[in-house]
Automatic annotation (TrEMBL):
Domain HTH tetR-type: 9-69
Pfam families: TetR_N (PF00440)
DNA-binding region: 32-51
Protein name per its UniProtKB record: TetR/AcrR family transcriptional regulator
UniProt KW keywords: DNA-binding, Transcription, Transcription regulation
Originating species: Tardiphaga alba
Amino acid sequence: MDAQTTKDRLTRKAWLDHGLRILARQGAAALKVGELAAGLNVSRGSFYWHFKDIGEFRLQLLERWQERTTDQVLEQTDASTTGAARLTHLMKLAFNEDRSLDRSIRAMASTDATVAAMVASVDARRIAYMANVLTEAGVESRRALSRAEFLYWAYIGQSAVMDPRHVSMTEDDIDDLSALFAR
């Protein structure tokens, strides 16, 4: 396939995936139509073929972020494990992922009410999921929500730690913590 054919077949998904990479690496200020198009080696017209404007693009970026970092992760976790192992699996996925995109989305949320609402919705869904996992693992429902919230706060806070000695956990550490919270 030649370069022109590739350009002609550029999809909305390709634009969104490119936007998510740029957002993770450079932040929201880099989400400019001209720069995005140049990064894909296409014209600005290609962007406007797929999106009405930058606002629509940003909204769809948020939806794609939710799909990739929440919907797919929860589906994968449900499909691959059961019981207490589900919490351990989820924690291993969460605590060992690159969270630069999440940091950029949360930075956008600090100045944009629409983004803040989407992030709050994702946070609530993730916490509810963890509380459900804890309940299924045998934790009393009245304790499951507070434990899920605490784990989520740790997850969010971990991405803000700057000392590289304290930004990751071993699988054994995660196993140990998972067992502590699932009691």
